[in-house]
Amino acid sequence: MEKIQVNNIELAYTRRGKGTPLVLLHGYPLDHHIWDVVAPMLDDTFDLILPDLRGFGQSSTVDTPHTLDDFASDIAGLLDQIGIQETAVAGHSMGGYVALAFANLYPNRVNGLGMVSSQALADSPERKQGRYDTAAQVNEKGIGVVVEAMTPKFTRNVALQAKARAIMEEQNPQGIMNALKAMAERIDASALLTAFNFPVVIIHGEADELIPVDRAREMKDAIPHDHLVELKGVGHLPMMEAPQETAKALMKLA
């Protein structure tokens, strides 16, 4: 992976393919490897930029709290350094939250948006408190509490559970805690959706146990011109469970 210095962190990223720029953002608590199967299917169409978000994979983090806007600012800094002004951005789960924050902060730099197993709504008070409680548990007991809780919820596919688990076990406890708090404090981005005049692709598994497919349908209702793909029997990891269908849908951002 290549690494750059941005916003007092070291941000790691992979760049591959050729064509229209497309940033692929991973979800929590994972890293860019979730796109390993999908990326080769997109190489002939897109100039792919796959970062590890701050605190995940090979990217460093800081001890002080940060927001989703900070994650988005990191991506802007990365694009500045590699010479890309305008791009499509697709994010999985938390990566979708970062993609929305990026589109809000840098509307002139976005020409397409992909929301994969994600949502525009903010956390309910109960969910928000749950994230803070989980962060406290990670601080006390380590990332194992997250790994054990998340693994069975990602997918019903046992082989893919093992792959997701292996990725999670490599993550930084501080990065996980910071991300939990950033997600807890995110805004309701629903109002942003109606202003988007670029292609929007929504990809969601009908069997998603972490973010119900209804959240995808609500986004579809807010953006009449978007493209919604619902994947039967697929959980929270469409790029791993249904890579061909996921890649085909993302092609609409070219």
Describe this structure in words.
The chain is α/β, with parallel strands linked by helices. The chain has a single domain, classed as Alpha/Beta hydrolase fold, catalytic domain (Rossmann fold, 3-Layer(aba) Sandwich). The protein is about 45% helix and about 20% strand. It has 11 helices and 8 strands. The protein has helices at about 40, 70-80, 95-105, 125-140, 145-155, 160-170, 175-185, 190-195, 215-220, 240, 245-250; strands at about 1-5, 10-15, 20-25, 45-50, 85-90, 110-115, 200-205, 225-230. An 8-stranded mixed sheet has the order 1-2-4-3-5-6-7-8, with helices on both faces. Helix 3 (about 95-105) links the parallel strand 5 (about 85-90) and strand 6. Helix 2 (about 70-80) packs across helix 3 (about 95-105), helix 4 (about 125-140) runs antiparallel to helix 7 and helix 5 (about 145-155) packs antiparallel against helix 6 (about 160-170). The radius of gyration is 16 Å and the shape is globular.
In a nutshell, what does this entry contain?
With 254 residues, this protein is α/β, with parallel strands linked by helices. The chain has helices spanning 39-42, 68-82, 94-105, 125-141, 144-154, 158-168, 173-184, 190-193, 213-222, 238-241, 243-250; strands at residues 2-6, 9-17, 20-25, 46-51, 87-92, 110-116, 200-205, 227-231.
Layout of helices and strands, plus pairs?
Elements: E1 2-6, E2 9-17, E3 20-25, H1 39-42, E4 46-51, H2 68-82, E5 87-92, H3 94-105, E6 110-116, H4 125-141, H5 144-154, H6 158-168, H7 173-184, H8 190-193, E7 200-205, H9 213-222, E8 227-231, H10 238-241, H11 243-250
Helix pairs in contact: 2-3, 4-7, 5-6
